[in-house]
């Protein structure tokens, strides 16, 4: 049997990188709470028809990227979720979640797409998303964009641009679609294989081509904004007015489309030049017809999703170094016979909210005091708690600062060590 390794494109997350992800997720949870969004968790595995009906049969995700399989017990077609919005809508329908009005929701979790792995684009990747269900106004579109903008400020990102577009309503898109087909048919000799395949099934996606030889053709193509009616234009203009009132810079990109068929009206992306071809870090828009596509009543909705890997890669390129919560103390223990007393003491500290790592024995024993101090320093702890023979005999612990030379070393009675905990917390 060969060496067992992770599946290609599905990566392990190890310390200390996992601490950075936890730091970012904590920032998101706090932000979502301030915007009154509540957490929802849907299954990783869904029935395949959910994505075929919700995302569109001719999308790249459904055609080429989904991990699909049959349930071995009953033969049901199942799929590892490639995105979360369809599952959130399915859950809202199944549980009558909107019976008493609209809901603001957010999710975190892994998604799966069978793509060519590259930096910032993996086959298993974490997404965070926000969904506002049951709200039709442009002010909710703006609220979601303002939330994402606030998140960049929270983590210190500045090199992120906002691009906007409107996809209008189905009749407007149909008129634009016919104009696109006629235009591209006149230039069929310039179309690449992918564009020819999409021409009659999903011509709007041709506008999203990355082929440099087609950029001139695409730039001159009919623009959807020219086909929008009064109501669609009013919605789009209202959104722009709110963003301008909040000093949010944006660019209208008439070529901006989304990879799923369920979008209408507002679509947007936050992009950066720092990540090369994987420059989209957050994207979303309005999907007022998805509830109907999945068998429900007409329900307005809007949302966005961000790729955690890309956001953190961007943060790294920008020199940002968010970390998890620092370790408060490292317990240095020289004799195994002291362990019962040490453990009960540390439990009282942990109950008071102090994080403590305990030095434990190995094949070589407990190790010297010097080696333990090296481990304490490497742990990142702010204090070393020394449980040596003299301390145990005196029923005390020595508290040695590891990060601040201006703080004096002290001793504390074991019975009263928990009273030291509030003092430690106040110095965080």
From TrEMBL:
<dbReference type="InterPro" id="IPR004154">
    <property type="entry name" value="Anticodon-bd"/>
</dbReference>
<comment type="subunit">
    <text>Homodimer.</text>
</comment>
<dbReference type="Pfam" id="PF13393">
    <property type="entry name" value="tRNA-synt_His"/>
</dbReference>
<feature type="domain" description="Aminoacyl-transfer RNA synthetases class-II family profile">
    <location>
        <begin position="1"/>
        <end position="326"/>
    </location>
</feature>
<dbReference type="InterPro" id="IPR045864">
    <property type="entry name" value="aa-tRNA-synth_II/BPL/LPL"/>
</dbReference>
<feature type="binding site">
    <location>
        <position position="131"/>
    </location>
    <ligand>
        <name>L-histidine</name>
    </ligand>
</feature>
<keyword id="KW-0436">Ligase</keyword>
<dbReference type="GO" id="GO:0005524">
    <property type="term" value="F:ATP binding"/>
</dbReference>
<feature type="binding site">
    <location>
        <begin position="83"/>
        <end position="85"/>
    </location>
    <ligand>
        <name>L-histidine</name>
    </ligand>
</feature>
<dbReference type="InterPro" id="IPR015807">
    <property type="entry name" value="His-tRNA-ligase"/>
</dbReference>
<feature type="binding site">
    <location>
        <position position="127"/>
    </location>
    <ligand>
        <name>L-histidine</name>
    </ligand>
</feature>
<keyword id="KW-0067">ATP-binding</keyword>
<dbReference type="InterPro" id="IPR036621">
    <property type="entry name" value="Anticodon-bd_dom_sf"/>
</dbReference>
<feature type="binding site">
    <location>
        <position position="258"/>
    </location>
    <ligand>
        <name>L-histidine</name>
    </ligand>
</feature>
<keyword id="KW-0547">Nucleotide-binding</keyword>
<feature type="binding site">
    <location>
        <begin position="262"/>
        <end position="263"/>
    </location>
    <ligand>
        <name>L-histidine</name>
    </ligand>
</feature>
<dbReference type="GO" id="GO:0004821">
    <property type="term" value="F:histidine-tRNA ligase activity"/>
</dbReference>
<protein>
    <recommendedName>
        <fullName>Histidine--tRNA ligase</fullName>
        <ecNumber>6.1.1.21</ecNumber>
    </recommendedName>
</protein>
<dbReference type="InterPro" id="IPR041715">
    <property type="entry name" value="HisRS-like_core"/>
</dbReference>
<keyword id="KW-0963">Cytoplasm</keyword>
<keyword id="KW-0030">Aminoacyl-tRNA synthetase</keyword>
<dbReference type="Pfam" id="PF03129">
    <property type="entry name" value="HGTP_anticodon"/>
</dbReference>
<comment type="similarity">
    <text>Belongs to the class-II aminoacyl-tRNA synthetase family.</text>
</comment>
<dbReference type="InterPro" id="IPR004516">
    <property type="entry name" value="HisRS/HisZ"/>
</dbReference>
<feature type="binding site">
    <location>
        <position position="113"/>
    </location>
    <ligand>
        <name>L-histidine</name>
    </ligand>
</feature>
<dbReference type="InterPro" id="IPR006195">
    <property type="entry name" value="aa-tRNA-synth_II"/>
</dbReference>
<dbReference type="GO" id="GO:0006427">
    <property type="term" value="P:histidyl-tRNA aminoacylation"/>
</dbReference>
<dbReference type="GO" id="GO:0005737">
    <property type="term" value="C:cytoplasm"/>
</dbReference>
<keyword id="KW-0648">Protein biosynthesis</keyword>
């Amino acid at each position: 049997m060969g060496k067992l390794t992770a599946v290609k494109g599905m990566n392990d997350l190890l310390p200390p990188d996992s601490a950075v992800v936890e730091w970012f997720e904590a920032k998101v949870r706090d932000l979502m709470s301030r915007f009154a969004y509540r957490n929802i968790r849907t299954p990783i595995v869904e029935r395949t028809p959910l994505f075929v009906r919700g995302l569109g049969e001719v999308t790249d995700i459904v055609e080429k990227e989904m991990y699909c399989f049959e349930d071995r017990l009953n033969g049901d077609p199942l799929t590892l979720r490639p995105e979360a919005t369809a599952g959130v809508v399915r859950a809202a329908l199944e549980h009558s979640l909107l019976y008493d009005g609209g809901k603001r929701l957010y999710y975190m979790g892994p998604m799966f797409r069978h793509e060519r792995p590259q930096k910032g684009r993996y086959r298993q990747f974490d997404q965070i998303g926000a969904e506002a269900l049951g709200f039709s106004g442009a002010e909710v579109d703006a609220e979601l964009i303002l939330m994402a903008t606030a998140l960049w400020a929270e983590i210190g990102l500045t090199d992120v641009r906002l691009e906007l577009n409107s996809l209008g309503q189905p009749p407007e898109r149909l008129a634009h679609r016919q104009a696109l087909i006629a235009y591209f048919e006149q230039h069929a000799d310039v179309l690449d294989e992918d564009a020819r395949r999409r021409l009659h099934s999903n011509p709007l996606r041709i506008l999203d081509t990355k082929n440099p030889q087609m950029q001139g053709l695409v730039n001159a193509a009919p623009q959807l904004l020219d086909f929008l009616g009064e109501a669609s234009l009013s919605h789009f203009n209202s959104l722009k007015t709110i963003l301008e009132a909040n000093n949010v810079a944006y660019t209208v990109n008439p070529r901006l489309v989304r990879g799923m068929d369920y979008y209408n009206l507002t679509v947007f992306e936050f992009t950066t030049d720092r990540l090369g071809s994987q420059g989209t870090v957050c994207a979303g828009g309005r999907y007022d017809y998805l509830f109907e596509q999945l068998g429900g009543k007409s329900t307005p909705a809007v949302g966005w999703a961000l790729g955690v890997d890309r956001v953190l890669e961007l943060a790294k390129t920008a020199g940002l170094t968010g970390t998890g919560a620092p370790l408060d103390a490292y317990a240095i223990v020289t004799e195994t016979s002291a362990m019962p007393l040490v453990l009960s003491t540390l439990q009282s500290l942990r109950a008071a909210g102090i994080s403590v790592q305990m030095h434990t024995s190995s094949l070589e024993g407990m190790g010297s005091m010097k080696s333990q101090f090296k481990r304490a320093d490497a742990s990142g702890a702010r204090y070393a708690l020394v449980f040596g023979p003299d301390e145990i005999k005196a029923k005390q612990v020595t508290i040695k600062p590891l990060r601040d030379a201006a703080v004096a070393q002290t001793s504390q009675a074991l019975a009263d060590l928990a009273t030291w905990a509030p003092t430690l917390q106040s110095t965080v």
